[in-house]
Amino acid sequence: MRRARATRTFALAVLAALAPLLLAAERPPGLGDVRDVRTWSHPDFTRVVVELSRAVPEPVVRSLSANRSASRPDRLYLDLAGIWVGRDYVDGIAIGDGLLRAVRLGQNTQRTARVVVDLEHYERHRLLVLRSPDRVVLDVYGARDDAPPGAQRGGAFASRPPSGDGGARLSLPLRGVQRIVVDPGHGGRDPGAIGIGRVHEKDVNLRLAKRLASELRGEGFEVVLTREDDRYLDLEERTALAESADGDLFVSVHANSSPRVDTRGIEIYYLDDEHERHSLDVAARESGVPRSELDSLQRTLAKLRIGETGLHSETLARFVHEDVMDGLATDRRTRDMPDLGVKKGPFYVLFLSSMPSILVEAGFLTNRDDAKLLRSDAYLDLLAHRVARGLVRYRDELPSRVARVGGVGR
To answer: What's the mean pLDDT in 159-166?
Structure first.
């Protein structure tokens, strides 16, 4: 282990000496570029997103212990094959949030860019490679300098070495369900589906989400909305907000569309690495990616530990579905609403959420009857009430379900 660490340290030193030569060299043809680097700092993790002009093979995240003589802290680093960064980020990007010091990018070889993350504290990480646009997402978890007493101290690798695959946090409801994150899909420059009468999905989503939040607060839940007005949130910011809220459940609210104008009804989705053909179409549209790009998501899903959260998400989806359909069946305006059932699919916004999560499709904006309902305050009130009832039932029945299976997260 010491020999391997020394070898990596020596290799990095050699590359640092060669960096000026690499930067001065002529750019080889056929390489992609770093388009942008974005970061978000939240109480127990920091997200780093490197957006690229082309797809890259999934990189391996490696670690280096501090080099005090060179004033280098503990670091994580990864290489992006086929990417040219040149001198665009020669000064690095300062973060200084108590978890990460900075992000530095440089040309490792003529055909490979390197991303180095300087650490203050470290517990684990999660790496994701996403498409449309192509980007690498690195989440670094740990206790910050202002963390409460008893949290990790004394350097990034003091109490735990980096694991090979990092591993996502599993926010299972051990404390009971107290806080729910409600995510109105789309917003701002992203209207979502545009239906009959030029109604925009983003507006329907926000109206329904606010009603749902009000219902849930009336039931004693704490509620966090990812957006409360008509603004654009990209996927990384939306899910970073959800994760930082320390929620127990995540509910993403959407309205559906279909090329068949006679298709109508409500669908409740949960995340799974299995799917149906229709689910892929919906997941691609709501995730903002071509359907062909969902194959890479399937490979990523196979690596994530979604087993326990998946079971909770499926139960949550079924409770909400039952309460919604029971409520619609007793209302004269909605008693003929088709029951499209509970479905599973590869939604980006769900698989980036480590808590039990569902996605509610509230009806089809492309169907005349559903579009009329979705413009109606009375329908949105009814739907919000019934979704809330399903979440209440999940909260109230969770302790007995956990007891029957002998606990969660063992």
So the answer is: 42
Which residue do the tokens 């196979």 mark?
Answer: 302
Going edge to edge, which strands form the sheet with 75-81? 62-64, 75-81, 112-119, 100-109, 93-94
Q: Above 70 in pLDDT, residue 324?
A: yes
What per-residue confidence (pLDDT) applies to 170? 42
Please list the helix, strand and coil fractions of the chain in percent, rounded to the nearest 5, in that order. 35, 25, 40
DSSP state letter for 70: G
Report the distance separating Cα 302 and Cα 263, nearest Å.
32
In this structure, the dihedral spanned by the alpha carbons of residues 265, 314, 134 and 189, taken in order and rounded to 10 degrees, is 40
Higher pLDDT, 271 or 324: 324
**In what side-by-side order are the strands of the sheet with 83-84?**
83-84, 32-42, 45-52, 135-141, 124-130
CB 361 within 8 A of CB 282: yes
Is there a cis peptide before residue 133, judged by omega within 30 degrees of 0? yes
Question: pLDDT: is 311 or 390 the higher one?
Answer: 390
Is residue 200 within 8 A of residue 187, CB to CB? The reply is no
User: In this structure, are residues 348 and 408 in contact, taking their beta carbons and an 8 Å threshold?
Assistant: no
Which residue in this structure is represented by tokens 């470290």? 122
> Which candidate, 111, 112, 109, 77, places its Cα nearest to that of 92?
77
Overall residue count recorded for the chain in this entry: 410
Q: What is the pTM of this model?
A: 0.68
At 128, list the tokens.
């994701």
Worst-scoring range by mean pLDDT, 132-141, 258-267, 274-283? 274-283
The answer to whether the Cα torsion of 19, 23, 25, 28 is positive or negative is positive
Q: 314, 270 in Cβ contact below 8 A?
A: yes
Report which of 277, 197, 189 is spatially closest to residue 230, judged by C-alpha positions: 189
Distance CA 44, CA 49 (A): 17
- Ranges 269-278, 332-341, 398-407, most confident: 332-341
**Residue 323 one-letter amino acid:** D
What is the band of 160 on the pLDDT scale with cuts at 50, 70, 90?
very low
How many Cα atoms are found within 13 Å in the side-chain-facing hemisphere of 21? 6
Q: What is the CA radius of gyration of the chain?
A: 23
